[in-house]
Amino acid sequence: MNLKQWLTSDLHAERATGKYSFAFLDEGTKREIRRKILKAIAIPGYQVPFGSRELPIARGWGTGGLQITLTIIGPRDILKVIDQGSDDSVNAVNISTFVTRVTGVTLTTDTTEASIIQTRHRIPEEPMNEDQVLVLQVPIPEALRTVEPSEEETRRMHAEADYSALWLYLYEDIIRYREISIGARYPVTVNHRYIMDPSPIPRWDIPKLHRAKNLFLFCAGREKRIYAIPPHTDVRPLEFQDYPFRVEDFKGAVCCRCGSTATYLDEIIEDETGARIYLCSDTAYCAKTAEEQRA
Amino acid sequence: MKPLLRVKNLTKKYGEGCPACTAGLPGEQESNICQTCGTVFACSGVSFDLLAGEVLGIVGESGSGKSTLIKLLNFDLPQSQGELYLSCKGGPQSASHPAVPVNGDNLFTLSAYQKRQLKNFLWGIVYQSPHLGLKMNVSAGGNIAERLLMAGWRNVGKIRERASVLLAKTEIPVSRMDEPPKNFSGGMQQRVQIARALSNEPVLLLLDEVTTGLDVSVQACVLDLIRKLHRELGISMLVVSHDLSVIRLLTTRTLVMRHGRVVESGLTDQVLEDPQHPYTQLLVSSAL
Amino acid sequence: MAYVAVKGGRVAIENAAKFLEHERIKGRSAPLGVDQIKDQLPLLVDRIMGEGSLYAPDLAALAVKQASGDLLEASFILRAYRTTQTRLGYSVPAAAGEMRIIRRISAAFKDIPGGQVLGPTPDYTLRLMDFGLADDSRTKRREFLHSVFKDICDSEDLPETFPKIVEMLRTENLLEDRTERHVGAVKANDLTRGSITFPASRDVALQSMARGETGGLLLLAYSNMRGYGNVHPTVGELRVGFLPVKVRHPYTGDEHTIGEVKATEAEIISHAMTPEGTPKFTLGYGLCFGHNEIKAISMAVLDRAIQTEEPEAPSEDQEFVLSHVDGIESMGFCNHFKLPHYVTFQSSLDRTRKTQEVWDESEAVVD
Fold first, then answer.
1. Same-domain status, A205 and A294
2. How confident is the model at residue C1 (pLDDT cuts 50, 70, 90)?
């Protein structure tokens, strides 16, 4: 049988109309991922290995976040997808198009309306509540990777709470630069036990992890790890008493659209004048605020 | 008085073992290899006590098992058999740390986490090669800080203060605190190791051939420093060396090892002046 | 305010896809048939099946067409399709001796039982550009085939099976004893149903490399052969042929052969010391879909290398090798750096500016 014959045969009939199970993933995969999510919630900050499946989107482009979303989503969920804080970013658009195609769920840009938010590199400015889940895309799940390339070794370090190598790295940073020079992917201690990589969110977003009302789910598709921060969990950035953790300093810059000074800002160099202007990274929140001001 | 450290029947073997050697190598032999199966007994049924404040020497030639012994005590190698007991309250650092168990447990049965905590608080090791004991690309202060960080110190200023005190105590210029040890001379690298070992006010120091390979005048400085620290801190020490003059200078009691066994033990003066075992006699008479 | 927020991402993506499609079809040549790719670029199709980890020549050919010839993309397309297929079960393991041979050579011995069967190989061809191919036609092909078969004399049939070279070494007791971990495993672990942990068992390591990207495996094996490692391989046996796919009947329990897959198998012979201290030979094993000798040999060399007692070179470090050979993972991660990273970059800008400030302040104080 050649390809043409196969395509028109009964064998292919099921696939002919592109019918997949609800949310693309088969039930066996969903079951495994759900169990692993539960395990992750039971051990806050601990990386649970799982059999990560390939998806039509490339590794490194959100297959982890996508597997979580596709596993937990139901037909009545309302989904928001952002990348760098923006719903319009090409990657976010690509992902939300795929999810809506295989589930038929409603999309929203309003953080307060969404039941599931999948995000890359940012936590939305508006605080979430106990009915919402934030799913974060993770490139490198291992907080200790900066000081140790071997996975076998980092797993042992976590098991034995042997974190002095990371603390030493921070100490050396301070004596070299008089500041901790880590920007995004700032390591945090979860529930007084595991050191966790919060994904490449800016330091600005770190405080939002501490004792939040919502559930945070993290997933690295390529590295095949799931981890979680359950609601009301203690999450503290690594810091020294005399060198406390600091968020980014925008030095009084203002969003030129909504006037905010209390959000994370994108720095943009204007086409014509070459001047520097600032815009809220959370574009939906910015639009909402600007709208409210006009009213 | 209970000894600070009690070692019982410590054995380390490399190989599958066989019925002939399961219970250990029979009697005293000319080698530490089982003739039947080729299993090597790096350490064979070593037992001894170390009293608080004592400096105990372990002397032997290469292959005697003395370095293996130190590595077993520092949990660098897993033991094949044996028990290890520590009796002390621990220094002020460890007083409030829940993970440090003493008085009663065989330390070899502890979990890896507990062993790490124990090592960090209760003793320090100085290796012959500074590359084993130090991170060469991390600053000298950082090498000391690592143990403090493991003990839970979270104030950079206080860490640096303590590091300065330790550097001063080991006669290293404090101005070099932020330099990596790879830039230091051999003698200074050993002193950084000593400073690091002392960081959490340990009750015991393990010194493995610490002056071997150094220039003679530098050796003398390091040995002087060790004696001074013993006087000032009253810290117990295990000194491993093949050099009888080091043993004579530092220790009050000595064990002589050969082929993984202790063949003689006693007061250092007696062992060196009036050796009983033929091997000890050979050692002493061969010394220049 | 002069700045207008960028919108229209959805439209931009759609247009990009159309542009890509346009690039593939804008030429004047006739549309490429999937059957043409399958028939006339078989080695390409074989490579895609191996890296896509799905034996389906038509689909692999289709993926090659869809990807405009990008091998990593094509393998990715096939893998993504594979993920949608229902798992029916596992085949009965085939013995390597069951292969229906089309090529079988050994570098270890000059002459071997069954003979050196060269089969279809470019190994001895002169790589002179054949301009005659520009003038290909059905007529020319017919003429060529006619000339080949016209003078073919009656030759002996190939034997049904060929003995394995390594068995000869084994009977002479020159081969390292097979330990329990190599023989009689009740059920092989399936890497795709979990995630790899280190140290990995040999079956998982081999599965990982069988799905690996040919160039990556070659790079690591080459580094070992050149001296960053100790394998010094001799090709004990290289086989290309067809392996039967056998399944067990769910009710009767009988084995049934339901088809065959083309595969390449390489066994390399290397030196090792036994625990007793006697030198023996040991094997490295490689197996992959389709006709892909570079991959099979590289895999065999690496199989040996990652079992080294005291690894020194990167190719001997099991975790290093197995973490980096998957083409779909590596290309995805490499490509992902093209995604916007401006939020993390902003954070980085803040840090660098801050440390510069602190530095300047302290310099000022010193002065």
1. no
2. very low
- The single-letter code of the amino acid at A59 is R
Last residue of a domain, one of A237, A270, A287: A237
pLDDT tops 60 at residue A18: no
Q: Test C336 with A200 for CB contact under 8 angstroms.
A: no
CA distance A241 to chain C (A): 18
Q: Are B156 and A172 inside 8 Å of each other by CB?
A: no
Catalytic residue among A62, A64, A85, A286, which?
A: A286
Closest CA in chain A for residue B177:
A175
Per-position DSSP letters for B216-254, written without gaps between them: HHHHHHHHHHHHHHHHHH--EEEEEES-HHHHHHH-SEE
Q: What is the CATH number of the domain that holds A187?
A: 3.40.50.11310
Distance CA B247, CA C317 (A): 42
- Same domain, residue pair A155 and A268: no
A45 catalytically annotated: yes
pLDDT mean over B58-79: 92
Assigned domain for A225 exists? yes
Residue A291 to residue A275: CA distance in whole angstroms: 25
> Is A262 in the same domain as A123?
no
Judge if A57 and A104 occupy the same domain. Answer: yes
Number of structural domains in chain A: 2
Residue A256: active-site member: no
Say which of A45, A62, A64, A85 is annotated catalytic.
A45
Q: Are residues A202 and A273 in the same domain?
A: no
pLDDT single digits (tens) C236-270: 999 999 999 999 998 999 999 999 999 999 999 98
Q: How confident is the model at residue C2 (pLDDT cuts 50, 70, 90)?
A: very low
Which residues form the domain of A224?
Answer: 27-237
Please report, as a single letter, which amino acid is at residue A248: E
How high is the ipTM of this complex?
0.88
- Element (DSSP H or E) covering residue C19: helix C9-25
Question: Which positions in chain A touch B150 (Cβ < 8 Å)?
Answer: 164, 167
Position A6 in a domain: no
Same domain, A114 and A205: yes
Q: d(Cα B92, Cα B104) in Å, to the nearest integer?
A: 20
- Chain A positions touching B146 (Cβ under 8 A) are 164-165, 167-168
A 10 A CB-CB count for C179 gives 7
What confidence tens digit (pLDDT) does each residue in C341-364 have?
989 888 888 888 888 888 788 777
